[in-house]
# Entry
Amino acid sequence: MRLEKTIQLLSDLVAFPVLGGESNLTIVDYIGKYLEENNVEYQLVKNPEGTKASMHCRIGPAVDGGLILSGHTDVVPVAGQAWDTDPFVLTEKDGKLYARGSADMKGFLASCLSSIPAMQAASLKKPIYLAFSYDEEIGCLAAPELVEAINRFYEEKPQFALIGEPSVLKPIVGQKGICVLETIVHGSAGHSSRIKQEVSAIHVAARLITWLEDKMEDISRNNTDERFHPNHTSLHAGIIHGGIAPNVISDRCSFHWDIRNIPGDNLHKIIEDFAAYSKSLEQELQKRFARARIETIEHHPPVPPLDTPEHLPIVNLIRKISRTEELDTVAYAAEAGQFAQGGFEAVICGPGDIAQAHRANEFIEISQLEKGLAMIDRLIEEFS
Ligand SMILES: [Zn+2]
# Structure
C-alpha cells in the first residue's frame, strides 16, 4: 500500500518539470495540498520575488531532539539528452521507474510524503520535520535561508538533518564543498603582431588557468583526504570565451571555474590567493595598458563541505535505521554541509543511485524505494 502510494506520488511529482532556477510554485502547491489533506500545517519560505518557495513542516510533538528529512524540488535539464521515454512521465520497466528526478530526488520526497500517515499514527516522542528546497541543482541556493527559517520558526531545536540525496541508502558523512566563479579579463584589442604592446585577454586568462592548475597540485601535495575521490581539493575551468579572429588580439576573455574542496582545505583562502595573484598580474598589465583589468565574480556563495564526526549521535542513528555500518563520502555537492552549518548533525542517505542522476534515462529501482520506506519506518520506531 505505502509503496503504491509512493509510486503514485512520485508519478505526480515528476510531471512538474521544475528545473533549477525556475519557479517551483506548481510543485510546492501540489505538495501543500497533499499536506493539507493530511492535516499537516506547513510554512513557506519564499524568495524576495515570491516566485519560488521552500517549505517545512513538523509531524509530532514540539520538543527538542527531532530529525529533519530534507530534499529539493528542482531537477536538472533534459535538453540534448537522448531519452527513450518521456522524461516527465514516470515509466516502469523491469522493476525500474524512469523519469527525470526519479533518483535525484523526487523518489525520496515521495517516500517522505507517503510516510506521513505512518508518522501520525505512531505516537512520536520526538518530531520529524520535512524540509524541501528549490534551486539546489544550480548551487544549493535556497538551503541557507530554509535552515535559518527552521531555526527561527520552531521554539524547540531539531537535532538531526537527514538529506535524502541518492546514496543507495548508504550513510554519507563527508562531502566536498563547492564554489563556482567566473573570471573576466579585460585587455586591449589590436593586430596580432602587436602582442608585446597590447594586452591579450586570452593570454592572461591562460596564465590564470595555469595558476589554478598549479595551485591544485600545490595544495594536493600538502593536504589529502583518503575518504574522497579524488583525494584532494580540485580546481577546474569548464567554460572559456574569448577572441574574434586568429589575427586579432582579444580584448576580452572570460572563464568559469569551480573549486571542490575537501573539508580540511579552506575555500575562502584559495579564493583570496587567486585574488592576490590576479591583482599582481593586473598591476603588471596596467604598465602596458592602463585599463587592463581582471575581475572575478562568485556565481553562488560557497557551499560548505560536510564532515560529520563518527562520535555524533546522528551516526549511530543513521547506521541503525539504514542497517548499514559502513560510512562513506561523496564528491558531489549537496545541502548537508549547509544544514551542518546551521547547527544540525547532518548526514546524507537516500534511495537511488547518483550514477543514474543528471543523465538520460534516469531511474530509481522500486526495491530502493521499498528499502527507503523501511528506513523511514525504522526512524519512526526509534522516535516512538
Ligand atoms: Zn539532488
